[in-house]
Amino acid sequence: MIVEMRIYHCAPTRLPALLDRFTTHTLGFFEKYGIQQIGFWTTLIGPSNHALTYMIQWESLAAREQKWNAFQADADWIATRAATEAQRPIVERIENHFLTPTSFSALR
């Protein structure tokens, strides 16, 4: 198992728009492409409260590449993303990390 941790750093005041896009649209695309989420978090205390952190579980890097690329190339997703950012961008920067569990990890 591989876990991908993604952190979306939003433009000021745009976190609610990102949360709405995930709730209303993105999670449906994840389901369509078999992208399995572990969880989503907003920052309670930290350097910025304009961030969304989430984790996705993958069987392998090859599976990630196939599913993620199909999702990103979906014409409906491209149109949805463009429509939700028509007035101004939502995300300023994305970080992602690929994590593998240790032998003593509860999640493997």
TrEMBL record:
Coiled coil: none
Cited InterPro entries: Dimeric_a/b-barrel, NIPSNAP
Positions of the NIPSNAP domain: 3-105
UniProt-listed Gene3D superfamilies: 3.30.70.100
Source domain of life: Bacteria
Protein name in the entry: NIPSNAP family protein
